[in-house]
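WARN retry 2 of 3 for item q-0093 after timeout on previous attempt; input resubmitted unchanged.
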Amino acid sequence: GQNVTAYLRVSPAEQATQEAANGHWDIGGKPEAAGVSEIDGFYLPGIRQLSYDAATQSALVCLELQGAIFEEADTFSMDLFWNDAGSVLHYGRFTLPITPSETLAFPVALPLENALLAETATLSEVVVGANFVRFTLDNPLNFTQWCAANGGQEAWFQLCDAYWGGDGSTAEQTSATSYTELDAQAAFARSWSEAICNAASDTAIVLLDGTEIALDSVQSAGRDHDDAVSWMTEDFPLPTLVDLSQVASLRIGCETFPIAS
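OK item q-0093 returned
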């Protein structure tokens, strides 16, 4: 796809890379993928350090890359730097292979309540990758269908009023707030997104040794939806890199789900 996550184990890396308030990792040296430079074909939305191992003086660095070029590229080349208060440490040039990421699927079929709409949808599947968790929601009604079943324009006006905090006026009354159908579509999608986020806040990956990796402190990293078929996905970054071979199950609230066979 167009999104690539890369991991580098960098050594030697001083503890300062973990603690420095003003320091940060960066890439340079004309980064390339399939012969295309960063400026022309892709960009780097994020680079962060996941962990530091004092015993080996090594840091695990995560790069997040986006661009259509990655649908064709099989390698990515760049130089890695650590910048701290004007001091730059160059770690050399890296060429990383680009391969499809492995994932684990968990069919869950959980009802999900949307308090704003007073509607229920189904959380159909949760997919776990090495660095992310993706929730898929199947909604019985898309935005157009929901409006048709609830009064048309009046329905989406009241939805906007509830979501955006209007003054309680109806569509026929003069209001200090003007809404568009686009505002209503955004409120509809975000209200379901918030329902997914509520479920994610009580979700954890359960490892074979019984320990859990919880999602309670992470924020959504992105969403996608298709009004025509009434589905939505929400992605959450994991707080640490996960060895998928060590995953036993998924917990959502009080329920535990096995890996799909």
